[in-house]
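User: Watch each token:
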Amino acid sequence: MRPINRSAGGSEPGFALVTVLWAIALLAIMAGSFSMTLQRDGRLVRYNQDRATGLALADAGVHYALMMLSLPDPHKRWRSDGTLYRPNLPGGKVRIRVFDEAGKFDINAAQEPTLRALLNKALGGNQDQADRLAAAILDWRDPDDLVHLNGAEETEYKQADKGYGPRNTNFQALDELQMVLGMTPAIYQRLEPVLTIYSGQDGINPNKASLEALLMLPGVDEAMARSFIEQRRTALPGVPVPFPLQIPPGGPRITGGGDNAYTIYAESLTESGQFTGVRAVARRQATGHSPYTFLSWKQLRSSYVELPDDERLDESH
């Protein structure tokens, strides 16, 4: 009998063992990768669910505000001067503020004295720059090609290499104001909260105006504005508070009226900490199936205004 030669096939068991170990390692890597993918997808699903919940909550806040603005009892009806409300809605925390468009400056209806006074205050007293920007705004919205003093029509936009000219019609959206020659992002950022295209009046109603809008009136400082707001807050519903300052001739007009169109900010914070906010503009309508029609709807990326610590939408409230 011939002896068995083990050296000829002795490497096969070792090779098989290495192959099995490599296969196990590969499967472990694949399993780990699959587990990480599931975890990532799970987080993404939860994030989208939280975002959808927050958006639905903010959406509910807008419609809740419209209901509260329509209450027949003036003592229960919500104010439209930026007063902060925190209604109890299921699913998370909600913070709502309503601003009557009559408490803002209408960029389409404001006449030259109003525009100049508003821009002068926004620009920190730089009257020359305010006059140029006011003239450019007037040239943008008027139907002709005649240039106001220090204004801008087609030729001036070409010289500035803008690639476009004035629309020669009313502003269709506030964002369009950023295209006016001389307007900068910094100026627009300060003006945007106090401007509207929906009131149709030259001037503002101080009883509907926010703190930011009151500060745009000549001669009004923060202490005076806050004192006036406190008087409004403690006044009887529907009773206007006399404005304590006489606006000099040539300044913005002090008007009445309102309760026609509103900007509503509704911000939600879900139980998981997801922030969502919307800004809606709604107008009352006398006919139709709904008492309001929406003119604008925009989702907010972050809080619309920095609030004091006692008004922030966080876990302490």
